[in-house]
Amino acid sequence: MNTATFSLATVAPAIPEIALLACVSALLLVDLFVPDREKHLSFWLAIASLAGTAVLAGATVGNATAVTFHGMFVSDPMSQVLKVAALGASAVTLVYGRLYLEARSLLRGEFLSLALFATLGMMVMISAHHFLTLYLGLELLALSLYAMVALQRDSARATEAAMKYFVLGALASGMLLYGLSMLYGATGSLDIARVAASLGGAGASQTLAVFGVVFVVAGIAFKLGAVPFHMWIPDVYHGAATPATLFIGAAPKIAAFAFVIRLLAQALGGLDHDWQAMLALLAAASIGLGNLVAIAQTNLKRMLAYSTISHMGFLLMGLAAGTTNGYASAMFYVLTYVLMTLGAFGMILLLSRAGFEAEELEDFRGLNRKSRWYAFVMLVVVFSLAGIPPAVGFLAKLAVLQAAFEAGFGWLVVFAVLMSVVGAFYYLRLVKLMYMDEPAGEITIAPRADARVLLSANALAVLALGIVPAPLMDLCARAITASL
Amino acid sequence: MAQTGLPLLSLVTWVPIAFGLLVLAVADDRRPAAARWTALAGAVAGFAVGLPLWTGFSTAAGGQMQFQEMAPWIPLFNVNYHLGVDGISMPLILLNSFMTVLVVVAHWEVVTDKVGQYLAAFLVMSGLINGTFAALDAVLFYVFFEAMLIPMFLIIGVWGGPNRVYAAVKFFLYTLLGSLLMLAAFIYLYHQTNGSFEILDFHRLPLTATAQTLVFLAMFMSFAVKVPMWPVHTWLPDAHVEAPTGGSVILAAITLKIGAYGFLRFNLPIAPDASHALAGFMITLSLIAVVYIGLVALVQGDMKKLIAYSSISHMGFVTLGFFLFSAEGVLGGLVQMVSHGFVSAAMFLCVGVLYDRVHSRQISDYGGVANTMPVFSAFLVLFAMANSGLPATSGFVGEFLVILAAVKANFWLGFLAATTLVFGAAYTLWMVKRVVYGEVANPQVAALRDVGARELVFLVLLAACVLAMGVYPKPFADVMNPTIQELLKHVATSKLS
Question: What is the pTM of this model?
């Protein structure tokens, strides 16, 4: 701790974060001078910031693990991959959401800078090597998202959603902090590596630590939206403007995955027997409730919210395995899940226009008549979410089930498999509406070419990853092995 | 092992799928001719690339897998793109490719809505079915097996009858429930073999009696739904009645066979002891299907429903034959599978011919069709005879062998199985009598015109197959027998030790 020198080498692992921070600051300033009808300049600036940062982050992929800022920050293979994915997901979200935001005059510097700040928060979370850094990143992300939901201030629904999100999110943060403080009491440190070392040794108070774990897991469950801490998800997904929903539903899941890995696998790996069972129960409850309640939804955003809950259950199932294999399959799961979510919400955004949200299931009625291609795009995404091969959702589920089985959660595997049948039902309903019914109202498809091309590529990627999954699976496995 | 330069099994899988995508690309709903001819080319090409499988098949290779292809697919889980066929799967691949041609021919003037998507769905499904029969890796099998649901779901749901959505969803969920349990069994076996998804490794894997029973039941759920066996058969009449003619043909002729094939490829060799222990249970279910469903078929007023129930009853024969564990029984079951493929397809196509003209499937709307459609009626009577198992038709060979095996095992078993000859004749011929013979029932029947050249094509082709197989089944038996011997030897060896 005596080296106070600030050389380039100590900063190097954090260059992507620093670059993004500089970009956001620049965007905040530049946007003040951009007139309202020229806001596409700010938009492209935001996209360029994300893309540039992604390039910088991409350049770090493959580097050896580097811990810097006195153990506060780490750049390891897992974080390198996840950051690129999170940046990409954020950028894609903005491209999909652009027309929607323009039509509702939401495409302003506020939305864009909040999006970038949220992304920065994700990156900090992903690279945290210290409980404080982790919490810092989490709050930066969460506060940006609360504000993003509330940005549509004329909408009562959005305001209500923001309020719920904020109150429950703050509660979750409180739980998490409470748990972390107990861990500090038990181990005397907030540094992830030291906490892990201390829990492995004899000095730490096991009772106190396990007590802390309970609160940490509750906090994690809140953030992921796992049952019984899922209440905020449907309301926020439903209430927020669709691009904000997509923003909440996609990239932050990647950060949340890293969050769980840092806290449970790295810091609390020694207590895995205590948290494995908790995660398994959370997973079972999420998969069960998410799938059952989704059936009753008529609003697509709410349906996808409940589907998210069940998908988070599957993610937790992989994590509950507590093995390298399990973490790797969970990482594969989260990356492919984000890709599918982008596709699903991208379709909602593609069909929405000024004064029309396209968020009811009924709005997809007869889509195949209007556009065979976009009906197919949604078909691929929906079957992937349902876990039907050849889309990638199946292999992601298989990997997670396999890992959970290996770890001895046979009952959970059978339960999850049975619940997938229930889940298939509501996904099928959407396919039925698109293909087997005639259009009821007018369907328009957003005219922006960039969003259309990206969405088509998105769906093809879902399909292609299902047919050639090996590279991404290997990448996840290598990243996890090298980082733990 | 037969060796040719070409990856034949990949070709029979991917050629139809590629043509299916091509059909989508050229499809234009206002001018469907391009899509139709492309689809026909694809179906014929799919069948043509399958023919060398028959000619190059070596009957001397015993139960060995032939035409094997192997490439790593997901190295992390040791999943391989492993294809291969034996005497059980090879005829089924050809049957499927053949039926696809017929389905394309049969749709020609009949389907006018979204023609491109309709044909593409069939071609893609045909490829996936071939992949299912050829897969030697459990995950690969599962991917083909499940992916097949998507086109079938759309075929029933988009081009089906008035209650099509209900039928499509029921079909999908029933099948999914079964197959997901099978997936759980695969994951279990993967761990037991220390990380292999090879089906042949599963065959060699020693398992305890409990494990075998559980694995057997999980897979039973999957395949029994597909066959379908009583009491999980209820999706079939719904799906059949609502599906368009082509969908019914593929469902009856092919997808039901996948269930029966699954029993031979998975249940019997992976869990031989459980298969023996549960044989009584399986035989009981099969006999219920044969007798009870046969009676149910008797009272149907809807022709498609009648044939659907008749299919369940005939498939009961197949599973009955398998679980007698004798060479005659298994061979009889297999021959019955192929024969039923021809006969049920022919019956559904005949109903389709009538439906296209009168737009009714109710028996009561017909009567005296022979007066206005003499050629068609001759074919219908022939297929009806085959359906009731008349000697010299393909229907006879399989049923006779199974009854023979059943009588050998137990006289009363054989007796109950043989009742099908009575019931089968009763419901089929009674239907034919009411539809074909008698006075012309109404002006619609009076206005019927006989089959055209296109319809004659598939009727003649199927009639030739039905008669050829009935008179000279030896080529099929020669191909199947070595594999059956090998299988029975394997199943007779206990895995408990």
Answer: 0.90
